[in-house]
Amino acid sequence: MKKLNSVLALLLLAAVPAPAKDKEKGESVVIPDVEMIDVPTAGILDYYGFMVKTRFYSGGGVLGGLNFGVQERLNLGASMSVDRLVGSDSPIKMRRPEIQVKFRFFDGGYYIPAAAVGYDGQGYYYDPADKKYLEKGKGLYLVGSKEIGLAGLALHGGFNVPDFDNNYLFGFLGLNYTLEDKIAFMLEYDSLFHSDDPARFNAGIRLYVTPYFQLDMGVREIGRNGAFDNGAKRKAERMVQMRYNTSF
């Protein structure tokens, strides 16, 4: 375990880049957010951009992800969750990797939001008996993002089809307010329109520790109770997430 921790620490240090710079002012600037807690945005990584994400969730689980800016408007990525990696519970279970793709086809205008289409197969709460996630990934989605009212206040919304077997159309909304590129407050209303997969309300904060390193702390499924289809209890979940941005 000590060797594993050392390797992980070296990988994280290797991912730390030099701060992004404003070419005109020579000042450090924050890279646009490509996602919130569970809700995607129309933001993308720049060409040659690279992001490493580590998310800690309930039960000692860890979700790791990589995302690349392979073209000017195209991002490709992959993620994988490992249950019970942190703590003393066992056995540790690695879940199958999932892919992420996002293409930003419109940069937005004065009235019209920026828009992107994508696919995200990463779900939450894996059920080994049925070999599926109790909370499905976004699947195929369309998202728009627009700054509204105040500087730093952005609204994100869209539609998604997580499961092509039943072709249900879901919706999602997100709102975030970024204060002086130091801290952002995030609210989400996810998984809308279908009572058999109840909507989720999430909230959190994002600390911009540096222009290339962000720390998220949030609560998912606020106020939610009841059970999933397999009988597992449904309740609020605390999560912590770290994101590192760099470029090739």
Description of the structure:
The structure is a single chain. With 248 residues, this protein is mostly beta strands. The chain has one domain (23-247): Beta Barrel (Porin), CATH 2.40.160. Helix content is 6%, strand content 49%. The protein contains 1 helix and 15 strands, in the order H-E-E-E-E-E-E-E-E-E-E-E-E-E-E-E. It has one helix at 2-15; strands at residues 49-57, 61-69, 74-83, 93-94, 98-106, 114-120, 124-127, 132-135, 139-147, 153-161, 170-179, 183-192, 200-210, 213-220, 237-247. The strands form 2 sheets. It has a 12-stranded antiparallel beta barrel. Strands 7-8 form a two-stranded antiparallel sheet. A hairpin with a 7-residue loop joins strand 12 and strand 13 (200-210). The chain is globular, with a radius of gyration of 18 Å. It starts with a helix and ends with a strand.
Helix content: under 10%
Number of helices: 1
Strand order of the largest sheet: 1-2-3-5-6-9-10-11-12-13-14-15
Average pLDDT level:
85
The counted number of beta strands is 15
Shape annotation: globular
Q: Which percent range describes the beta-strand content?
A: over 45%
Structural class: mainly beta
State the major sheet. Answer: 12 strands, antiparallel, barrel
Residue runs with pLDDT of under 50 for 5 or more positions: 1-29
Domains, number:
1
Measured distance between first and last alpha carbons: 30 Å
CATH superfamily: monomeric porin ompg
The CATH topology corresponds to Porin
Order of helices and strands: HEEEEEEEEEEEEEEE
By CATH, the architecture is named: Beta Barrel
Please give the radius of gyration in angstroms. Answer: 18 Å
CATH class: Mainly Beta
